[in-house]
Design goal:
The protein is an all-alpha fold. It has helices spanning about 30-40, 55-65, 70-85, 90-110, 115-120, 125-130, 155-165, 170-185, 200-210, 215-225, 230-250, 260-265, 270-300, 305-310, 320-330, 335-345, 390-405, 420-440, 445-480, 490-505, 530-545, 550-560, 570-575, 585-605, and strands at about 190, 195-200, 350-355, 365, 375-380. The chain is about 60% helix and about 0% strand. The strands form 2 sheets. Strands 3-5-4 form a 3-stranded mixed beta sheet, with helices on one face. A two-stranded antiparallel ribbon has the order 1-2.
Length: about 600
Amino acid sequence: MAVKKTSKEHKAGKYPVKWDLTDIYKDENAWNKDYDRAIEIINTFDQFKGKLNNVRSINALIKAVDDGEFSIILNKLFIYAELGSSLDPSEKLYLNMIAKLNRLQVLARTHTAFIDAELFANSQEKRVKFFNSPSLKKYAYSFRRFTDPETVIYSEETNTALAKVRSVFGQSDQIYSILLDADTVKPTIKMPDGSEKTLNDSLFDEIKYGDYKRSFKIKAENLYYSSTKQSIHTFTALLNSKLLEYFAEAQLEKKESTLALALKSNDIEKEIFDKIIETARKMLPDFHRFCEIHKKGLKIDKQYYFDVSGYVSKYNAKISYDDAVDEIKKALAVMGDDYIKVFSEIIESPHVDVYSDKKKREGGFMTSCSNPDILPYILLNYSGYAKEASTVAHEMGHAVYGYLSEHNPSNNMTNNNPSIFTHEIASTNNEFLYYSYMMQHAATKDEKLFYLENILTLINGTVIRQIMYTEFEQYIYGIVESGNALDADILCDKWMELNKEYYGSSVTFSENMRYRWAAIPHFYYGYYVYKYATSATYSAIISRHILSGDKKVTDNYKKMLTKGSSEKPSELLKEVGINVLDAKPYKDMVRYYKDLVDTYAELIG
């Protein structure tokens, strides 16, 4: 089975609109052939047993397990199955592939269980010496746990047992995806013309931003948020299972909390986490001011949650996907011809799935094989509003970053996949550049207001709201880590408490908004969302330098994009001139946001 290049509903225009997964595998047989080959390679790992006491053997092991044919095949196997599942999570073919891959992981972990015990049998001094040698130095950062004195060391027997236990990890994610995307019945709504339609993300956006009566929009919002209500206790149990999984990993690694494990795993300083929460809290007075100005501009007595991301401007027209891509390319021209060349290569390939479908995963994402021979893949759910062009710019920021990292000959399979901490900088930087360009080229005051509202919405969504999510995460992890179980009613109450605190008194929430947390997959990612906030903070600074014509920052930023995860994130950002441990970037964001809200107040009048 292969995904066709075009859809019956949406024909490709200037740019392709449907994935062609045959760039990864021609068909199921080709996938199975690589699967069998992966098993063959796994069975060769035992040849390294008893030999990991010298640089030559360790180097050979890394090339066999982490930086060679096996890694290339494993990434392709997973990406193919996950992309197919994204189009239909209930499709049997991809469910079977994912099940086989879970078994493959167990086999791989079992056959590599000896590695840690043997490497750690060498003294700390020897391990440091090994990874400072010319042949292993390029792997030193990726394998820093072997030289980190805090790393927990297990015996081969324990690692073998853990490999089998961990085979069940990740099941809650898969079940959640099926429950949310395939089995959760989307509500139907009677449209003003009398037709009955399924109220999915795309239709809700159409209603929110379209020319419909306000009473209909309010009804649609409450109905839209009701989808998870019917299974809220199942969603709660699944989330509880996932948090227990993460906490178990933290305990195995002798960390005091899941947060400590997440920060350590991503090599992120705790000060960054604390600073970004403090920053969002400092921005709340201006956010509340924005909400009040917005309400005034809309001339409404009661402002609902959906209104906050809506527009006072009347400009929000429809724009075709082709035209949106062309606008984005013009906006990103400031990045240089080399950047646009990569952008064009990806966007002109059948690696972008543009339009929504019945069982297709909602939202958007980019994924990469960490393989320079295969272009990144992008999933969108484009419904044609001008604001959605920024989502295309966002995901293309990820894609270009992945491409540049993978094509850097100094990188390898262990470090050419950037961490999400820097990945989100690349995506939100594109959004800031796009909105700023569109503001600058606005033909009317109303059009300028529209793009200013988009910049504000970007910050509201990536800094303020994501930190609200982070505080919700801290709360639910606190429950699980104290030995208690999550309760649906308590979670819904806490969710609404945070929403009201963050949005202030000028925003009203629909009754069913209390169930919305269950539709957010990011809570299954383990302290993930705060990185959106840090990234928006840093990219706001970077984009302003680029727009001012600062060639040094532009060149250093593009250089950073080639480095993948070859260094600590805070060190990568130092090269662009941002010290993330200093107070300045965060003060700059608070000030920048205040200035934007001031400008907004002037335009609203």
